[in-house]
Amino acid sequence: MREIAFREALNEALVEEMERDEDVFLMGEEVAEYHGAYKVSKGMIDQFGPRRVIDTPITEAGFAAIGIGAALAGLKPVVEMMTFNFAILALDQIVNTAAKARYMSNGQFSVPLVVRGAGGAGGALAAQHSQSLEAQYAHVPGLKVMMPATPKDAKGMLKTAIRDPDPVIFIESEVLYGFKGEVPEEEYLVEMGKADKKREGDDCTVISWSRALHFAMQGAEKVAEEDGVEVDVIDLRTVRPFDRDMIRESVKRTNRAVVVEEGWPFASVGASISEWISRELFDWLDAPVERVHQRDIPMPYAFNLEAASLPDADGIADAIRRACYL
Amino acid sequence: MAEVMEMLALSPTMEEGVLAEWLKNEGDAVDEGEVLAEVETDKATMEMESFYSGTVLKLLADAGSTVNVGDPLVIIGDEGEDISELLDELAGGAPAEEAKEEAKPEAEEQPEEADEAEAPQPAEGPEDGRRIKASPLARRMAEDKEIELSRVEGSGPGGRIIKRDIEAAEKAPPAERRAPAPTAELTGVDVSFVPGEAERLSQMRKTIARRLVQVWQTTPHFYLTREIDMAPIMKHRADINAQLADSGAELKLSVNDMIVKAAAVALSRYPDLNVAFTDEGLYRFDEINVGVAVAIDQGLITPTIKNADQKSLGAISREIRELAGRAHEGQLTPEEYSAHTFSISNLGMYGIDEFMAVINPPDAAILACGAVKEVPVVEDGELTVGTRMKVSLACDHRAVDGAVGAEWLAEFVALLENPMMLLV
Which residues from B are below 8 Å from A321, CB to CB? Predict the structure, then answer.
């Protein structure tokens, strides 16, 4: 199978959906003339023109609101946030308007909006530009949150997000844009709310998503080599709603779970997943649910300190060992 | 901070318990899980383990006293800690309730645990009343497989019972699910290769085991064996018993009665053997009290003939019979089986030729008697048939030397071979 980069996979998803459906359009800072800050929209202005690939001013709240309005009016906007650090400015629109419209209009309105962009640490971007903020959105009823970890999933998931009738927050790890992987040429979709088993084993269940999944895979590799421990690695892909069935099946078999996330530990997606496992699968657990996450501090600027702050293979391997009483 | 431990409900129906024995004294260090005391419940005598590690600061109940469940029993804390306030509270101050509250939930856990196990078995629950730590999975597995959690050794952090422990318990033969597989920790004995049933030790068996190990490890034994011509005394015994029978008396003398009498008389002549080796020095007993080992269902006990040197053969015989009878019924008072100064163990009735006995503290010696048998003997250069018994005297070499034992034994032999002397 051909291998393409994560950003190219996203580009294909956008192009295919815009070709398929005239109501789909892209809007955001530098998406048109500059082809996107991360080159996700490369070539799109040439193919679709400035009516459907629109450069906006640096006003996140403003263009998020335009996107919501367009969605309410029947279009299917994809609003690109240069990074989700800046999307904080648009939180009022996303949380108070996009997430509430269907409920408060008693189902008369829907907001088929995708807000997508880069998230997480990117390598010495410092405290304000290195944040994993998925919990802010996953917290809110009315929002769906998707976070792909591979090019193949990125393409299939973005197409699903665009076709979804409700607002979807689509967060792409900044360091994964250049990450290459196999992507089918034929069309496919990745179902909303379906996780993917990225590695199989009976000794422990490791749950992760987005960039942290790659750390989890390294940790799994490490315990397989060093301890002969084989773990299930579940890529959640959609963090809200998350795939309870796959976690249930796996944890009932392994009796232990490790949740790995790139972001902070308190009130996080990982905390919620852990809580759900501890409660729903209580009688199946042989050990407390272990968690691995970024240190509970603003991200340091220095490369070495950034690495020290993020989860890594060693820390994940240790967590797996603790869960397995090794 | 000092902690108060209370009398625990050691069986589901227990409302009060008799503090049988403190195994720790004030000032002793104690670890969590170590046995603090033996408590007689309505069901059995149980060991009560400490919830805390530290120093025993104050024992709040005397051995032998009856204590209600929930009443304070002992204070454990740091050495030298001031517990006067705590004592005041316990004496009646309201804050004492707080201390009670703290330990109570743990004690109350017990019936709950018992519910989870297969069937409520009073004396076999988590005896110490402590919470059993088990992973949720382990709990569910134990319930499904009808394995009693209190019987499973936890290998997880803090002794948590986890999946692998239940799996191990499941693989064990059914008998071992009911009782923990004996660990090799204390005894060095590993029985895991052979299926079998673990049986709980009776209080008596525990005591025997503990005391004998202690004696064996601390007491240097030496043994002196002699063969005794029993023909004269067997003849006398037959004469006496015939006459007793003629007179209609119920009394019938046994060889053992005569051995007891002879031993006591010999002790009166060689009092150096009627001693105990103690921490403070050699203890010379004022009385000559002979303990007679009696095998009973639960183990072994030594009912004691006090002042046997001063009693007639008939009195000794009657007393032995009476004490042995009560021993079988478990009716002896501690003094009746503890006040011995010398002991006799007789396996003659089992046809044993000779054997070596283990000293029965506080005694300095024990006499082991074999069977009276007809054997070929040489008399005046001629081979003939003789009646003989072999005895072996075990002595505590710390208290007595070989010569003392040998002299006592010579006197004992002389008395049995010249039984008329027993009457003097």
Answer: none
